[in-house]
Design brief:
This protein is α/β, with parallel strands linked by helices and 209 residues long. The protein has a 6-stranded parallel β-sheet with strand order 2-1-3-4-5-6, sandwiched between helices. Strand 3, helix 3 and strand 4 form a beta-alpha-beta unit.
C-alpha cells in the first residue's frame, strides 16, 4: 500500500512508520505554505510511487498567544498549514489520477477543535474548520473514506512550551493518563483498515474532564 504521510517530522508520523509502510513528506521535502503547488507535488509523488491508497495529514502548528495580540500573518500561517493545506492535499488526493479505489484520508485534528481553548483560539478555529471539512468531504468524495482524530494533550515538541505545572494539572484530570503519539498512530492504522467508518471525529483524550 502507498500511504502518504504529510508531516513526517512529527512524533506521530515516526510512530506510524513502525506500524505501516509510509511515504514520508517533511517540511524539507515540501513547504505546505506553497498552497498553489500542492497539486503538482502530488502528481510528482504518483509518478515516482504510483497511485496512493491512503493520505494521512499530520502537519500542524500552534501559536500560544491571545488573539488580541496576534498578527494577521500569524493567523494566516496557522490556517494555511492546519486547514488550507489539509483541504488542498485532500482535493488533489480525491482525483482518480492520484488515488486508488477504496482509499482513505485521515486528518489529525485536536480536542481544541471540538472545545475551543483560550490562548490558542486561532489554532482551535483551524482545527474546528478541519473537523467540518472531514464531515463534509466524507459525503462529497465517497467512496473515499474521510476521518479525523482529535487527540487530547500530548507531550511533543510542539507542547514543550507549556509549564510543568500546566502539564501536571492536565494529568490530574486525565483518568487514563496522557495521550501518546503511539496511541494516535495505532488509531490511524485502525482507520485506514476500516472499510465502513467515514465522517468521524474520533476523540482520544484519556477521559479528560
Amino acid at each position: 500500500m502507498n500511504n502518504l504521510v504529510i508531516g513526517a517530522n512529527s512524533e506521530i508520523a515516526k510512530e506510524l512508520s513502525n506500524l505501516i509502510e509510509t511515504i514520508d513528506i517533511s517540511r524539507k521535502e515540501f513547504d505546505i505554505k506553497n498552497l498553489d503547488k500542492i497539486d503538482f507535488f502530488m502528481k510528482e509523488i504518483v509518478k515516482k510511487h504510483g497511485k496512493l491508497d491512503n493520505l494521512i495529514y499530520i502537519a500542524g502548528i500552534q501559536n500560544i498567544k491571545p488573539l488580541r495580540v496576534m498578527k494577521i500573518e500569524e493567523i494566516k500561517e496557522i490556517f494555511d498549514i492546519n486547514f488550507f493545506g489539509a483541504m488542498l492535499f485532500a482535493k488533489s488526493f480525491a482525483s482518480k489520477r492520484i488515488s486508488n479505489p477504496n482509499s482513505s484520508i485521515t486528518f489529525i485534528s485536536s480536542i481544541a477543535g471540538i472545545e475551543a481553548e483560550k490562548g490558542i483560539l486561532a489554532y482551535s478555529a483551524s482545527k474546528g474548520a478541519l473537523n467540518n471539512l472531514t464531515q463534509g468531504l466524507a459525503k462529497e468524495i465517497a467512496p473515499i473514506r474521510v476521518n479525523a482524530i482529535a487527540p487530547g494533550f500530548m507531550k511533543t515538541k510542539m507542547t514543550d512550551v507549556y509549564s510543568d505545572e500546566f502539564v501536571q494539572e492536565i494529568q490530574k484530570n486525565t483518568p487514563l493518563g496522557l495521550v501518546t503519539p503511539k496511541d494516535v498512530a495505532k488509531t490511524i492504522q485502525f482507520l485506514i483498515q476500516s472499510d465502513k467508518i467515514t465522517g468521524e471525529i474520533i476523540k482520544i483524550d484519556g477521559g479528560y474532564k
